[in-house]
């Protein structure tokens, strides 16, 4: 049976002398894995189609219970070529597609997540949009769509409002107030300004969000919070290759 899908390329793996195994996140079917035979040949019309972050249309032969489906043909919808002009933006885009790949289940359809992915790549490729703001929105809303929305308004123990900020407990992704928290080497304090920024990102659509007015230390805390929370709930996100590059940029 022949199927057609709109998808974003998440990653590729060379196979044999001229073929590739391509992992896609599609609007219609969730994550897909295709084998594209001969695609690395210089004569292949699809040779440049499968770069990670590319938005494409693919036609493939579907076989039930097959781990790999057979690629037939494809065309580029959006290459997001603006990413290639800025290494920081390209790195963030690579983090985005790798995080999606490690977070979703095979063949689990999620149109909202697919649209979030497309919108994020579009924003990251637009130099008029702050790349960190675009990334934070993606990461927070990815967690929400996966069912792991961060709750930043109240202490996870006593339920008092976190008016003066909160701390992530040791080995935990839940915020605790000053009186409930037991300080440790692994603790992260998140100020009320950072918590308000996270709440704002989660509660408003992109068009209504104002530019986040955080200083460098608060911005770093926001990064640390998002990743600590993600590592706790999405264990497969640990050890991401693109994250190692990101840390070199921001450390």
Short description:
The chain has 251 residues and is α+β, with helices and mostly antiparallel strands. It has 6 helices and 8 strands. It folds into 2 domains: 2-78, Nucleic acid-binding proteins (OB fold (Dihydrolipoamide Acetyltransferase, E2P), Beta Barrel); 81-250, Recombination protein O, C-terminal domain (de novo design (two linked rop proteins)).
Strand content: 15-25%
The H/E string reads: EEEEEHHHEEEHHH
Quickly name the level 1 CATH class of the largest domain.
Mainly Alpha
**Count of spatially separate domains:** 2
Overall mean pLDDT score?
Answer: 89
Q: Indicate the CATH architecture of the largest domain.
A: Up-down Bundle
Structure characteristics:
alpha+beta, de novo design (two linked rop proteins), 251 residues, elongated, 3-stranded antiparallel sheet, 5-stranded mixed barrel, OB fold (Dihydrolipoamide Acetyltransferase, E2P), 34% helix, single chain
Describe the overall structure:
The chain is α+β, with helices and mostly antiparallel strands and 251 residues long. The chain has 2 domains: 77 residues, Nucleic acid-binding proteins (OB fold (Dihydrolipoamide Acetyltransferase, E2P), Beta Barrel); 170 residues, de novo design (two linked rop proteins). The protein contains 6 helices and 8 strands. A 5-stranded mixed barrel has the order 1-2-3-5-4. The chain has a 3-stranded antiparallel β-sheet with strand order 7-6-8. Strand 4 and strand 5 form a beta hairpin. The N and C termini lie far apart (49 Å). The model has no long low-confidence stretch (mean pLDDT 89).
């Amino acid at each position: 049976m022949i199927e057609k899908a709109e998808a974003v390329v998440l990653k590729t793996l060379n196979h044999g002398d001229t073929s590739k195994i391509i992992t896609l996140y599609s609007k219609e079917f969730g994550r897909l894995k295709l084998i594209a035979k001969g695609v690395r040949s210089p004569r292949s019309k699809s040779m440049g189609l499968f770069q990670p972050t590319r938005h494409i249309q693919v036609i493939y032969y579907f076989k039930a219970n097959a781990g790999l489906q057979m690629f037939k043909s494809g065309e580029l919808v959006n290459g997001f070529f603006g990413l290639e002009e800025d290494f920081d933006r390209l790195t963030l885009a690579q983090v985005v597609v790798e995080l999606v790949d490690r977070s979703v289940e095979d063949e689990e359809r999620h149109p909202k997540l697919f649209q979030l992915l497309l919108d994020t790549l579009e924003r990251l490729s637009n130099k008029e949009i702050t790349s960190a703001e675009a990334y934070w929105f993606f990461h927070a809303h990815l967690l929400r769509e996966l069912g792991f929305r961060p709750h930043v308004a109240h202490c996870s123990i006593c339920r008092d409002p976190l008016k003066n900020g909160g701390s992530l407990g040791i080995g935990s992704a839940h915020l605790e107030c000053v009186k409930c928290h037991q300080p440790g080497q692994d603790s992260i304090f998140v100020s009320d300004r950072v918590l308000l920024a996270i709440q704002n990102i989660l509660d408003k659509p992109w068009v209504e969000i104002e530019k986040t007015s955080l200083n460098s230390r608060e911005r770093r805390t926001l990064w640390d919070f998002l990743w600590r929370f993600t590592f706790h709930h999405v264990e497969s996100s640990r050890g991401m290759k693109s994250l190692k590059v990101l840390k070199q940029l921001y450390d």
